[in-house]
Amino acid sequence: MDASRLDRRQFVLRSALGAAGLYSLVDSLAGAPARAALAPKALPKLREQHLLQGLKVIRRDGVEVIVPPLHHQVVTAKLRVEAKAKSLLVARTELERALQGLDRRFAPTPQGLGVAVAWGDSYFRRFIPALGNGVEFPDYLPVDDQSSRLSGQRTPVLQRSPRFRSDDETVLLEENDVAFLFRSDSLANIAAGADAIFGSLGGLFELTSIRKGFVGGGFDGGPGLPKQMALAAGIAGAELIPDGSQLFLGFTSTQRSAIAMDRITNFETLVGVTDQWPNGYFRGGTIMHLSHVFEDVHRWWTTFSFDEQARSMARPGVSLRQGTFTLPDKASEIRTERELLEDTARFGAVGHSGALHHVSRLDRNVVDNYGTVRKRGTSFIQRADFNTLDNPFFQSVRPEVDGQRAEAAAGLHFVAFAPTAGLFHRMRWAMDGVLSGKKELGIEPRARAHGFNSVLRATHRQNFLVPPRAHRSFPLAERLR
Q: 54 with 107: CB under 8 angstroms?
């Protein structure tokens, strides 16, 4: 791509950072949830940058549910910095100054602004090839002890995402250097955050994509955001989305017991997962998986009965009252691998949650490295995904490669935090029927009997390392030789 064309596209992308487009309807269709006001100085300074504070918990269908921030935005970029220690240290100082300015302005809450900076494999490979002590990439990254034991060789916590069995060959495995995740109930706060980073520090980053979306908006009654936004965008089947739904496919995804909202997703928290306890450089960090997925709303609501939807989301044999879209998630509901295999043999089908439990939940009570008792069934994967009408992105620097289209399309920007990429991969493989020890469920991964895979189509994937707050800006640049 020639320089003039690239500069024009960069101008378009930067102009889109503060633009809302169709998402400007969100605030008029559903006001921000009522929350307690929390000032930045009133909150503890967490080691983690990926954890939000001040999250509201409500009850829905008798289940505790977390009310996430209303608005979400992800910005991905390549670096425009020389791969030299001096240049990286200058960039590190500039970015950290901008981030600290946002810390002073906004509490890390839905009412304020959550900002997480995540770094791709390409950043470490290209810009941090070796440390001053001679240790080369990837050997200086945290070690995934579990994956190392399984593979018989040293495995870092950050691995490139593969294409999974239900992915088409067209799924793009991205190589962005960095991603910024912005979350808030306020579009203005997200715009201010993006401007603070990309307005004043524009020379550091070549933007590659902007991804926008929303979650919820229907917990206080009424039709809910997914239905109203899908109707406004002309999505086929939108009128069939139940009132009050959190997501386009209807079912709630933020049950308190199903989402790891504390530091259990950190590298160092669970015993024996990585080598970062007690004094690792990346203690307080995590892995972030980012992908885009189209959802066939029309097919889901016109060809699946409620009972089949419940089976697809939970497990075969589940019994729910008609119209119950918040699934119970007690420890007694958690399926073991043995029970999953038995269900599959008996019913010839598998549910989404049931397929994941044995690799995304604790199989027994444990005490973590911080002395906290973690009960059986506790999730160690934190979902932070959000509805989108992007197709597939709000803006792209390479629209012909990313398959960018002008018309809206229902989907999900899937964001998940996990202690290691290996753990996330094992969970995602299980979603496609591949279990431990190369056991398989024997159901075609895109079959209708295989969870809700048949109405999903991924387009892009990438894994990132999210450092602790102390090292969020150009991690390890200070240790270059």
A: yes
